[in-house]
Amino acid sequence: MEDLDDLKTSWKLAQLSLKERVLPVDTEPWQAEDVPRSPWKRSTASSEERHFAIHNIMDDAVPLSSLGLVAGVDISFDCTNTNKASVALVVVQLPGLEPAYKSCRPVTMCQPYVPGFLAFREVDFIVESVNILRGSHPELYPQVVLVDGNGILHPERLGMASHLGVLLDLPCVGVGKNLYCTDGLLRDDRHKLQITAMRDRGDFFFLYGADTEEVLGAALKSTENSTKPVYVSVGHRCTLRTALRVVNACSKFRVPEPIRLADIYSREYLRDSGNVA
């Protein structure tokens, strides 16, 4: 294996190249359905008002009627060997969110875990699973992939969802269970106050970079009873508005159904093999 410093240098160069290919715009017909302009984007608001404002994605009430197949991916690790894992891919059918396809297979990591470079350790296995699906069941090839991780909500604006999206050339959305603290984002009292201010399903607030004022993602209350948000970010070939609409449409529980099922299946696979995640 390469020296770690050399490896990080090569990965950094690859990140810069991949980042140039990320498209934070809607590119698909199903994304272009007539969406009414909701009041959550007001240029006249002060910086303080924008940072504290709570919006609701349900204001975009037009259903995603042309969106039928959404995939979720997850990797669970062997508790006795962190290089051994299972990678799960699930495709659900909208609007009912019934599973239309699932696969789970064992993999062995061949790259080290390095913070900020997680995709280089895991992404090739996910790409392979998606390509297996495309070859065996092309009629179930997803229109968008939800990733248990982040997209542009990342120090280099290239988290797993963006990295995967570019490699697959598919719309991808990052859905984090915890806030990625980068560019001044903190799990502080202010952040907790914003979370408690979200009352209804579909409520969300933007995540602004402290230094850049860039919108890196949004914290979304995905169900009525959820007390913790999920953190949604653009991966590739979608806007944040579209990303939020997709996650909201796919949520029965806090974590959207494609990812939730992929997590369950990957853990079950390890349990069945005697190595609980």
TrEMBL record:
Keywords, ordered alphabetically: Cytoplasm, Endonuclease, Hydrolase, Nuclease
One of the GO BP terms on file: DNA repair
Signal peptide bounds: none
GO terms of molecular function: RNA endonuclease activity producing 5'-phosphomonoesters, hydrolytic mechanism; single-stranded RNA binding
Subcellular location: Cytoplasm
GO cellular component assignments: cytoplasm; nucleolus
Primary location class: cytoplasm
Name of the protein described by the UniProt record: Endonuclease V
Species in which this protein is naturally found: Ornithodoros erraticus (European soft tick)
